[in-house]
Design goal:
The complex is a heterodimer of chains A (243) and B (309). By secondary structure, chain A is α/β, with parallel strands linked by helices. Chain A has helices spanning 43-51, 73-79, 96-112, 117-130, 146-159, 176-191, 203-209, 227-230, 234-241; strands spanning 5-14, 17-27, 32-36, 58-63, 66-67, 81-84, 164-168, 195-199, 212-217, 220-225. Chain A starts with a strand and ends with a helix. Chain B has a single domain (2-306), classed as ABC transporter involved in vitamin B12 uptake, BtuC, CATH 1.10.3470. Chain B is globular. The chains are: A alpha/beta (243), B mainly alpha (309).
Chain lengths: 243, 309
């Protein structure tokens, strides 16, 4: 099976600091991939390079069989690549329903043809119900709790009807039950056919979610395999716990 | 529109010419404030160079007046085209600038354009240019004063600017502009082509400001760089939307009517020299008391009442 995402030999520098150094990564359609690494290991930089928020200096990104290098972030979203942000970035002047309306108008509308107002409204309600926020459809993002904000962030990414969703630390700062909520949601989305890359520090969540685990340290990939094998990898243990 | 018609009919029946002069200025500010708000309010890109776009419209009229005099409605369209092209160019050159850097760039553009006009003798240079206009104009068999004609033209431009501003706010474009204002990175991630939308905003905003400036030489009779690039246009076009409220089409209209009327009253009762002082004081007061403008203040009150607070 050809990979949905193929990252080939990507490198990125910020001045003299090497953030990514020759990263290779393949993600298969329908897969649940966990991406872990200590702070500053290059996880978010990799996401930014894949999604087009940053341009990589070397290497290439292929998505759904086509090179997406040089495409702007919004064009990659149109192709089916969506992301949520580490810190929720809602559109603060729009209510929750309108937050979801934006990707429908600008991405789904462009990809699948004109959408009627009624079908957009119905889809907004359906997505908000999926994340448990349908009763707050007309509320503003400032009225939400932290976990609700993260759910909105995921719902907005899903509203673009992506083939691949990259969830960047969607569970940071949440309680155990809230983490379970988000994990259940991510698994539901995966069951709907969305391939998911989960970037996370909370190991219990990563282990229960991921079918495969990739570890980055100092901009390099040091492990790639089944979660139970990767966590026993001496190099991974050293990176997390020290010598 | 209704207020404009009432002013027109009152001025016409009572024979008070000053109503047309004052009304024209207020309508002109409605256009400028609505145009500024498309870029500054909807997209969050503060433009300090409004006076330059206004002056471009005015000087394109002077240029064509000397080259080959044309009817004012056509000059308004030409002013929109010239200012729209410059707006597009400004947007293209400053696409990657945000916040204070974008604001400074627009201010710099205004200074550059003023310097060019000051040194361009064909349009009058620093000495200015005279526009000779008729006393009356004949429209479909009716003869009206020229100032009444200018008033009606500016009312049409004001209606057009309000319609454009309102339409944008209620369509896909308005959603896109709001996402740019709120979070550009998240907007791109949602599929919003932010660079293209910013170009659309700078072009429409610039074109409308040019339309406001195009009839100005006929209104004032003598155009010089200091009047066309006047500080009051730059300051008022920012202050009026901020005082009225920047997130809706109605805010700039309210701000323009309120501030424009106050300034006209001050001009006849005290002196036009206090106009900018009034704007400055009100601006400071609103930034402190009602940062979301009058519209935001009313919306907050209504929301509080609805929530029973």
């Amino acid at each position: 099976m050809s990979p949905l995402l193929h990252v080939s030999n990507i490198s990125k520098r910020f001045g003299g600091f090497v953030a990514l150094d020759g990263i290779e990564l393949e993600v298969q359609p329908g897969e649940r991939l966990g991406l872990i690494g200590p702070n500053g290991s290059g996880k978010s930089t990799l996401v930014n390079c894949i999604c087009g928020a940053l341009q990589n200096e070397q290497g290439s990104v292929h998505f759904d069989g086509q090179a997406v290098d040089g495409l702007a972030a919004h064009q990659r979203t149109h192709r089916g690549l969506a992301r949520s942000f580490q810190l929720p970035r809602p559109f603060v002047s729009l209510n929750l329903a309108d937050n979801l309306r934006v990707p429908m108008l600008y991405t789904v509308h462009k990809r699948s043809g004109p959408l009627h107002g009624d079908s957009i409204d119905a889809r907004c309600v359906e997505l908000l119900r999926l994340v448990g926020l349908d009763h707050k459809a007309r509320h503003m993002p400032r009225d939400l709790t932290q976990v609700e904000m993260r759910k909105l962030e995921l719902a907005r990414a899903v509203a673009a009807e992506p083939k691949l969703l990259i969830a960047d630390e969607s569970m940071a700062g949440l309680s155990h039950s809230e983490i379970e909520d988000i994990l259940t949601l991510l698994k539901q989305l995966n069951e709907r056919g969305i391939t998911i890359i989960l970037i996370e520090h909370i190991m219990s969540a990563v282990m229960s979610f991921s079918q495969r685990l990739v570890v980055l340290v100092s901009g390099k990939k040091i492990a790639d395999g089944k979660p139970e094998d990767v966590v026993k990898n001496p190099e991974v243990v050293r990176a997390y716990l020290g010598q | 529109m209704l207020v404009g018609l009432v002013v027109y009919v009152s001025g016409h029946l009572l024979g008070i010419g000053y109503l047309f002069f004052a009304g024209y200025t207020i309508l002109q500010f409605i256009v400028l404030a609505s145009a500024w708000n498309i870029l500054g309010g909807y997209c969050g890109y503060v433009n300090f160079g409004s006076a330059a776009f206004f002056a471009l419209g005015a000087y394109s009229t002077v240029f064509f007046y000397k080259f080959n005099p044309l009817p004012i409605p056509i000059l308004i369209i030409l002013g929109a085209v010239v200012s729209g092209i410059v707006g597009f160019g400004m947007g293209y050159l400053t696409l990657r600038l945000r916040g204070a850097f974008f604001a400074i760039a627009t201010l710099a553009m205004a200074v550059v354009l003023q310097t060019l006009v000051v040194n361009w003798s064909y349009v009058g240079g620093s000495r200015g240019a005279y526009i000779v206009r008729a006393d009356t104009v004949d429209i479909g068999g009716y003869t009206i004063e020229y100032i009444e004609y200018l008033f009606l033209l500016m009312m049409a431009v004001a209606i057009l600017s309000i319609v454009i501003s309102r339409t944008i706010a209620r369509t896909q474009l308005g959603f896109g502009f709001a996402t740019i204002r709120d979070d550009e990175l998240a907007a791109e991630a949602s599929g919003v082509p932010t660079l293209r939308l910013k170009l659309i905003a700078t072009t429409i905003s610039g074109a409308l400001m040019g339309m406001a400036g195009a009839p100005f030489p006929y209104y004032i009779g003598y155009l010089q760089p200091a009047s066309a690039f006047g500080l009051e246009y730059g300051v008022n076009s920012i202050a009026m939307p901020i005082i009225g409220g920047t997130t809706s089409w109605v805010g700039p209209v309210i701000g323009a009517i309120l501030l424009g009327s106050l300034q006209q009253i001050a001009t006849v009762t005290i002196s036009s020299a206090v106009n900018l002082l009034i704007v400055g004081l009100l601006l400071v007061a609103f930034v402190v008391i009602a940062p979301n403008g009058l519209v935001g203040l009313i919306q907050d009150r209504l929301r509080a009442r609805r929530d029973g607070k």
